[in-house]
Prior knowledge:
This protein is an alpha+beta fold and about 325 residues long. Helices cover about 15% and strands about 35% of the residues. It has six helices and 17 strands. The protein has helices at about 130-135, 155-160, 165-170, 260-275, 280-285, 300-305; strands spanning about 10-15, 25-30, 35-40, 45-50, 65, 70, 80, 85-90, 105-110, 110-115, 145-150, 175-185, 185-195, 205-215, 220-225, 230-240, 240-250. The protein has a seven-stranded antiparallel β-sheet. A four-stranded antiparallel β-sheet has the order 5-6-7-8, with no helix packed on it. A three-stranded antiparallel β-sheet has the order 1-10-9, with no helix packed on it. The longest helix has 19 residues, at about 260-275.
Amino acid sequence: MERTPPRLPSSWYVVAYSDEIAPGVVLRLQYLEREMVAFRASDGSVSVLDAYCPHLGAHLGVGGTVENGTLRCPFHGWRFDGSGTCIEIPYASRIPPRARVPRQPAVEKNGMVLVWYDEAGRSPFFEVPELPEWQDPRYSRRWTRYEWTLKTHPQEMVENGLDWQHFPTVHRMDVPRNPRFRFEGPSYTWGIDAAKDYTLQEFREDFDLGGENWGLGYSVTRQDGAFQTCVVTGMTPIDRATVCIKLGVIARRDGESDEAMESALQKYVDEHAVVATQDFEIWENKLYRPNPLLCEEDGPIADYRRWVRQFYCD
């Protein structure tokens, strides 16, 4: 019996926050069973390349340098532009026509950098949308960040958002009210009315909770309670059984900046991270059931399993 689904799904995956790739910085990335490097090209866009020089195999993220938006190899000084094309060999009169580093499909949206993965090398067949909250000046302008590495799989994590029956057991929430969901192409949306006791403070609230998933690597959750928050969770495989979780939270401030408000907001935001960690022990110790035994009250899990098939090459 497999502990996780055996393959990696086609999806966009969060590999970094935009501000981690400042001009002149080479960022080493170890995701999706690949070694990659990210840097800003001469036009300011983020370029993600395979990590190894095509010449004699030096790692471009270990000692490589960015020069005017190009990446120079630390071994023999070959220089590559944002497309991965070699544009200079310091000691050569002619550049071999195949002198290039493979470039990964990458986009920069909502203050994050995402890389496309497809087992068969197909081009992206959907896009991650712009977040209205990221463009809204009433929201915080920097993601409050949390990160973990777990022995699990993105398909298991994304399914968790529709498994409402575990909310009372694991997350100290009341039984969700008024559940709704919709599967549409590469995304699904969901919502519930909920109430919960908080972990980090003596506080109980009723709130609206909902979200959307795009593929199996990118999740947006919105909570409207004491504060309005927008949570993006990137579920990026390191390999077929290990996931890096990057959870970012922004919150609506409405111009408030006093110390008491900041402290209350931070506790509220930290609670989102606590809720995420409550599933970790279960994910790391469960088996993947390809044909789970379900009851009628288990909600849309069967619909979800049919929806995920589009993200695997067969």
